[in-house]
Amino acid sequence: MLFRQYFQYGYWKVRVIQKHGRPASVRHLVPVLFVIGVLTGWLAGFVHPWLGLAYGGGLALYGVLSVFFSARAAAENGWDLLPVLPLVFLIYHVSYGLGFGLGLLDFVVLGRGERAAMTTLTRPSAWVGPAKPLMNSEAASQESGTRP
Fold this sequence. Notes:
Layout: H1 2-20, H2 30-40, H3 44-47, H4 49-77, H5 85-109, H6 137-144
Helix pairs in contact: 1-5, 2-5, 4-5
């Protein structure tokens, strides 16, 4: 679910950039450059061994920074998160970058409209209308075993 959500964020960010004429920040472009680098960078090793080492070093640097920022986030939000945060960050970056790349292909390169699969929400909408209780207080108290 997280992958699909950030994939859509990246995909639709291309439309936002088109509307405003430029990215709000360079950081919106970094994930797609990261994905392109990961997918194609290994080929540089065939050109020269030093380029292959640079590619491996870049991947290692990403891993180290991911652990560093995971530890920083875990220190603020709970150390129990530390084991999963590097994977979460990787999913954020890869899914957003792939979605952005597909958005570039669809909207800029091919000049076509959105894909039908990208128009469906990845999660239920938080707002569904006026707030109303899920059940009346008597039913709720019976369910929980307490009295209203």
